[in-house]
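Q: Please design a sequence for this.
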């Protein structure tokens, strides 16, 4: 249920998943900065921030039922897929959990973008 208008958003599941993914990416970003092999994680750290920001923007656009929300969510799915791919290269628990959140978000964004 939306917060301000108390209506049920057709995008609510995707909004929630985008918010979860952004949080997971920021948490993983912080954890990766504290790993001993931080240099090896350069690409992963970069995509984590890009993914988090994309998810935040997708959530915002869906919340306002924006004209290009579906297009944006298609791109968000691609970035989430890439982030999951990068995270799975590292065996840390935080990277594995983040990869799973990214995959879930990508799936939900694709589902939302396909809505009529």
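A: Design:
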């Amino acid at each position: 249920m939306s917060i301000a208008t108390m209506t049920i958003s057709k995008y609510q599941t995707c909004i929630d998943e985008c918010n979860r993914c952004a949080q997971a990416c920021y948490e993983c970003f912080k954890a990766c900065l504290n790993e001993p092999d931080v240099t090896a994680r350069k690409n992963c750290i970069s995509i984590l921030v890009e993914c988090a920001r994309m998810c935040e923007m997708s959530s915002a656009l869906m919340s306002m039922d924006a004209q290009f929300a579906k297009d944006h969510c298609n791109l968000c799915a691609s970035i989430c897929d890439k982030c999951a791919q990068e995270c799975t290269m590292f065996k840390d628990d935080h990277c594995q959990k983040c990869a799973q959140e990214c995959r879930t978000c990508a799936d939900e964004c694709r589902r939302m973008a396909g809505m009529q």
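Q: Thanks. Anything notable?
A: Residues 30 and 100 are 17 Å apart (CA to CA). Residues 12-113 form a domain with the Substrate Binding Domain Of Dnak; Chain:A; Domain 2 fold (CATH 1.20.1270.360).
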